[in-house]
């Protein structure tokens, strides 16, 4: 756990210091704020493994972005978001279609992103986002259907340790990144983006005495963002 904490802290520090390095190239002071919304396709990396399919959830919140400079053809800046985001997993057993289990976990996620873009000041741009992300668990719920006891009694090799198990660690951290396109107009800036989040933390305890040695989120996100400039 110490190594994961060090990595997470280093990534967070690097994102927070991005503006300090924006001293080369054509200086800009463009500050924009807005809203974002989209969907998550969630899964969890378990060890021992748990069979599952993607669980769909919502993702949305507020965005703030600062563009500090244009270095040759690359536009450089930093972006922060505060989002309500649904994580979790949906267990799926092809040989046992009568049973199902879903755990939905509601988080406040805060990604700290480097923003690198290429394109025109007015018109279409291509951008890349990357940086650390932290999250705070608000609540979770589970839904279980079918006669699991009967299926297991008949010899099914299924992991059920996670069923009904409380979440041990409510603080989540990891790295996220993605790419998209932005249309910059007089009416505002419209962004369409795909992003992936890889958790470095486990939400269940993972010491030698615990059942799971790994329980971490993996999330594919598709979102739309609208930003309007406060300062150009």
Automatic annotation (TrEMBL):
<dbReference type="Pfam" id="PF13568">
    <property type="entry name" value="OMP_b-brl_2"/>
</dbReference>
<feature type="domain" description="Outer membrane protein beta-barrel">
    <location>
        <begin position="22"/>
        <end position="204"/>
    </location>
</feature>
<protein>
    <recommendedName>
        <fullName>Outer membrane protein beta-barrel domain-containing protein</fullName>
    </recommendedName>
</protein>
<feature type="signal peptide">
    <location>
        <begin position="1"/>
        <end position="22"/>
    </location>
</feature>
<keyword id="KW-0732">Signal</keyword>
<dbReference type="InterPro" id="IPR025665">
    <property type="entry name" value="Beta-barrel_OMP_2"/>
</dbReference>
């Amino acid at each position: 756990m110490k190594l994961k904490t060090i990595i997470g802290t280093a990534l967070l520090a690097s994102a927070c210091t991005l503006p300090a390095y924006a001293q080369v190239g054509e200086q800009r002071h463009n500050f924009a704020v807005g809203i974002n919304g989209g969907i998550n396709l969630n899964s969890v990396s378990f060890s021992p493994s748990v069979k599952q399919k993607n669980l769909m959830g919502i993702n949305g919140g507020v965005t703030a972005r600062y563009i500090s400079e244009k270095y040759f053809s690359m536009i450089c800046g930093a972006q922060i978001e505060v989002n309500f985001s649904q994580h979790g997993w949906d267990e799926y057993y092809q040989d046992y279609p009568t049973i199902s289990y879903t755990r939905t976990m509601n988080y406040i996620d805060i990604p700290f992103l480097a923003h690198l873009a290429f394109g025109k000041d007015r018109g279409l741009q291509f951008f890349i986002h990357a940086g650390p992300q932290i999250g705070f668990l608000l609540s979770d719920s589970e839904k279980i259907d079918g006669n699991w006891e009967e299926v297991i009694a008949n010899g099914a090799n299924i992991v059920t340790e996670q069923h009904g198990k409380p979440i041990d660690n409510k603080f989540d951290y990891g790295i996220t990144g993605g790419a998209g396109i932005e249309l910059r107009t007089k009416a505002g800036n419209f962004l369409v983006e795909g992003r992936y989040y890889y958790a470095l933390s486990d939400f269940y305890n993972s010491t030698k005495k615990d059942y799971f040695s790994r329980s971490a989120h993996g999330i594919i996100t598709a979102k739309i963002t609208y930003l309007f400039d406060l300062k150009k």
